[in-house]
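job 3f2a | input accepted
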Amino acid sequence: MLDAIDRFQLQLGTATGSGLIQALAVLFPDDGIDLEAILFSGESLAPGPGGRSLTEAAAADAVRKREQERPAAQPGSYRHGAVILLSDGRRTTGPDPLDAARMAAQRGVRVYTVGFGTPQGGADAESSLSYYMQLDEPALRAVAAITNGEYFQAGSAADLSQVYRQLSARFALERKETEISALFSAAALLLLGAACGLSMLWFRR
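job 3f2a | predicted structure (205 res):
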């Protein structure tokens, strides 16, 4: 996992919807989720309805059509994985994160959102580049609510560490009932076979 993180190539812009869709593509490789097809399904970059580009509008329509045809799972019912979205929540490019959240909800996947930054926004003083981080809490809360997840606010490194400790505690332990009567039955059969074999050897003598 650490090697994969080291290979990340950071880019300018915030594409929270793309991140969620890519995470779903990893969790459900057989669903044929193609992020590039969604991103480049349009041919024109002229403004479309609601101020979006035609590419974004076509992507949103394609997502809605495909998801409408998919049987819906109960939100939060998927137990084999979850998505943690760490962002200021202010999307600057890519598909609408609410559409991506609905894709996750259709599959029962919870999305836990962690927001950092301030509502007023500001430049990152610790970076050599100028990043303007403005926290969009309503968007992050909406993504978490749609998927039956939870929103956390991390205003500092200490807050972020506490959030990860809470999430680790939730995902590290899982209570599960396991049927073991078949195991005892198999052991009894093995003992019975051993007893029969020893008996045959004994009486032959």
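job 3f2a | The beta strands are 83-87, 111-115, 122-123, 132-133, 151-153.
job 3f2a | closed
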